[in-house]
Design a protein that fits this description.
It is a single chain. This protein is mainly α. The protein has one domain (7-65): Orthogonal Bundle (Diphtheria Toxin Repressor, domain 2), CATH 1.10.60. It is built from four helices and no strands. α1 (7-19) packs across α3 (44-65) and α2 packs across α3 (44-65). The radius of gyration is 17 Å and the shape is elongated. 15% of the residues are buried. The mean pLDDT is 89.
Amino acid sequence: MGRIKTAQVKRITKQLMAAHAAEFSTDFSKNKEIVSRHTDITSTKIRNVVAGYAARLVKQQQAQSGPRRAVHKEDLSQYY
């Protein structure tokens, strides 16, 4: 089980993703640079948490928009 992100981290990340969505990627270190460039966060811990959460959101968006495997009747017949 993972750690729960605070409302502050989620709010900052979602605002950054809305404004600069094209810049973020699944790479944590690139996201750290993007967060540093577009915010004035002085705490490295919060910057890292925001960058990691942004990477996770990008991965989730890619998984949802990716191709899905079609379910065929042959696949279901072996279970039912």
